[in-house]
């Protein structure tokens, strides 16, 4: 039936089909090439250009009928020589890694319990996890400032109850920073884990238990390996943006938690050194390129399933 | 006994995580009604910060701009995202597909400072060459659309993948042309996903600080940029009132949308049932 109908399609229809296909592909493709890909090339170019008084110079200049290509790699040298940059990159990676591990520790049991809860309760639970996405992320991070400040809600309450006499220093420490990061990113870990765990074939666990495995063994040797792709997706969704996070360290971090997003921001907005900011960005992309490839591989493989 | 212990752990863990997720939001709301100018010291119930907000030109102007940007972003993201989702769903083989998929998905995780900086540097280079665009509404819109498109694609794509291909095939068999199939069959089936993608990209745009900070120009300060600069300096009662109003609007919006959607779902179920009855 289907083939007969397809054959009977007129040539004109087939042509519109081919044209339609090209149109459908090319509109988002051109947009992404111009707005996503081209900017990266521009950043790379500018990272190699010299800074004039107020503006960067073009890398190609015309001098006595000769096109001269000037590549200044000085910015990259300063990146390796000045320990400020190294420390900022290192602490960004460290904080992103700690955040990812804590998110995983909180989200895995949560997603597991959610996936094993009665089927009629799951949509409501999922809704509750998603709802914070719809309220401003900036305001939710700000809320932690209220809770953790020296005269904040937690300290006031603890002093009123007589638990402590002096306010605990919680704000602007690595603690407040990681707390804010975990708080913001934990839903990004829960969702892919849940989508993965809810699809799992429970008969495999029954089989393992029938064959004499303890529930604990069954969990570690069946459930965890089967949820590997969810773990990878969730971890990348948390780790990659955390490396370059700017707003959370700015509001909750302190002097001990200099991150690379802040360095880039300063080079650009305070020092007005655009080529330097561009070099910082290029190296940052270099650091996250492998996690990014992993993430893209997972996204390409995933058939969608329950992902929201 | 053992079963109950497991159940208890599960409930305690889930309640704990929900408390963690919702406590800050509730604190913001409660303290927005605080009479005291000391943000975290309770001084009785009052609406004075809401009255002050009505006079706050900076916030109000920023909000108007943010609303315009968010509305435009919702529309452009949904159109581009739907096209991208259709591409990824339909066309399994075309030159550059891997690159295409990578470019669609990467903005989901790419640090915003990189997106903001690279777009700005490109726009500045273009401006030097051609004399436009000026930084402002349109450049912020462009940056937000890049981010919004990635989210819209994920949402619409997952709906397309759940959809049974037989519906489109049936329409084709009955002689519908590709465009007819799309507008009469596919689009109504994915309309719910498109609506939630619009809402999500709208809220994402309304919330964005970093991309807007790179791409804004003189006189185009969005509301989040104002809030961020105030929050950076310290606690400010105006931020609490904005937060409470945002939460109220979003809750009403999400609530209304879910009612409309479930109603549409019911109607469709009824129509389907009626169609089957006729067929019998």
- Indicate the CATH class of chain A: Mainly Alpha
Strand content of chain A: under 5%
Which range best describes the helical content of chain B: under 10%, 10-25%, 25-40%, 40-55%, 55-70% or over 70%?
A: over 70%
The name CATH uses for the topology of chain A is MetI-like fold
CATH topology of the domain at 57-243 in chain B: MetI-like fold
| Residue share in β-strands of chain B | under 5%
How would a crystallographer describe the biggest sheet of chain B? none
Average of per-residue pLDDT values of chain B: 85
State the helical fraction of chain A. Answer: over 70%
Count of domain modules of chain A: 1
What is the topological layout?
The complex is a heterodimer of chains A (308) and B (280).
Chain A: H1 2-8, H2 11-47, E1 60-63, E2 66-69, H3 74-81, H4 83-115, H5 122-134, H6 137-148, H7 153-160, H8 174-198, H9 202-210, H10 215-226, H11 228-243, H12 247-252, H13 260-269, H14 274-301
Antiparallel strand pairs in A: 1-2
Helix pairs in contact in A: 2-14, 4-8, 4-11, 6-8, 8-11, 9-10, 11-14, 13-14
Chain B: H1 2-32, H2 48-54, H3 57-90, H4 97-105, H5 112-130, H6 137-162, H7 165-173, H8 178-207, H9 210-215, H10 223-233, H11 237-279
Helix pairs in contact in B: 1-11, 2-11, 3-6, 3-8, 3-10, 6-8, 7-8, 8-11
């Amino acid at each position: 039936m289907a083939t007969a109908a397809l054959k009977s399609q007129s040539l004109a229809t087939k042509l519109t089909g081919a044209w339609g296909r090209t149109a459908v592909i090319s509109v988002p493709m051109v947009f992404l090439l111009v707005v996503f890909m081209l900017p990266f090339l521009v950043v790379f170019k500018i990272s190699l250009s010299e800074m004039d008084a107020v503006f960067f110079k073009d890398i190609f200049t015309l001098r006595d009928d000769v096109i001269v290509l000037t590549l200044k790699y000085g910015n990259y040298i300063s990146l390796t020589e000045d320990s400020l940059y190294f420390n900022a990159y290192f602490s960004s990676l460290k904080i992103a890694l700690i955040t990812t591990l804590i998110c995983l520790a909180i989200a895995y049991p949560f997603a597991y319990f959610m996936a094993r809860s009665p089927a009629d309760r799951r949509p409501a639970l999922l809704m509750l996890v998603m709802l914070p996405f719809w309220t401003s992320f900036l305001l939710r991070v700000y809320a932690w400032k209220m809770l953790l400040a020296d005269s904040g809600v937690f300290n006031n309450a603890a002093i009123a109850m007589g638990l402590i006499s002096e306010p605990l220093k919680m704000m602007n420490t690595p603690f407040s920073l990681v707390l804010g990061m975990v708080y913001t990113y934990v839903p990004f870990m829960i969702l892919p884990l849940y989508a993965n765990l809810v699809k799992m074939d429970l008969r495999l666990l029954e089989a393992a238990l029938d064959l004499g495995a303890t529930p604990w063994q069954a969990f570690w040797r069946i459930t965890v390996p089967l949820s590997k792709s969810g773990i990878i997706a969730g971890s990348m969704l948390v780790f990659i943006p955390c490396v370059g996070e700017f707003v959370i360290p700015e509001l909750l971090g302190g002097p001990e938690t200099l991150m690379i997003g802040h360095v880039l921001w300063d080079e650009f907005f305070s020092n007005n050194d655009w080529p330097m900011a561009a070099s910082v960005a290029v190296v940052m992309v270099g650091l996250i390129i492998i996690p990014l490839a992993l993430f893209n591989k997972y996204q390409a493989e995933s058939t969608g399933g329950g992902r929201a | 006994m053992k079963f109950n212990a497991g159940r208890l752990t599960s409930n305690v863990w889930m309640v704990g995580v929900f408390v963690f997720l919702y406590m800050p939001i509730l604190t913001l709301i409660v303290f927005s009604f605080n009479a005291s100018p000391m943000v975290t010291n309770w001084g009785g119930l009052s609406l004075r910060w809401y009255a002050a907000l009505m006079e706050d030109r900076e916030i109000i102007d920023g909000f108007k701009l943010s609303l315009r940007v968010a509305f435009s972003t919702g529309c452009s993201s949904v159109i581009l995202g739907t096209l991208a989702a259709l591409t990824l769903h339909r066309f399994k083989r075309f030159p550059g597909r891997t690159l295409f998929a990578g470019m669609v998905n990467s903005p989901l995780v790419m640090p915003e400072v990189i997106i903001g900086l690279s777009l700005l540097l490109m726009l500045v280079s273009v401006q030097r060459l051609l004399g436009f665009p000026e930084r402002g509404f349109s450049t912020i819109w462009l940056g937000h659309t890049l981010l919004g498109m990635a989210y819209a694609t994920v949402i619409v794509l997952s709906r397309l993948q759940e959809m049974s291909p037989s519906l489109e095939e049936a329409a084709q068999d009955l002689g519908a042309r590709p465009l007819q199939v799309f507008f009469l069959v596919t689009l109504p089936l994915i309309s719910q996903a498109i609506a939630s993608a619009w809402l999500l990209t709208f809220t994402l745009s309304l919330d964005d600080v970093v991309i807007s900070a790179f791409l804004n120009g003189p006189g185009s300060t969005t509301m989040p940029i104002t809030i961020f600069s105030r929050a950076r300096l310290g606690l400010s009662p105006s931020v609490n009132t904005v937060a409470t109003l945002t939460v109220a609007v979003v809750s009403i919006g999400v609530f209304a949308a879910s009612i409309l959607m479930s109603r549409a779902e019911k109607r469709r179920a009824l129509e389907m049932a009626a169609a089957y009855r006729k067929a019998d």
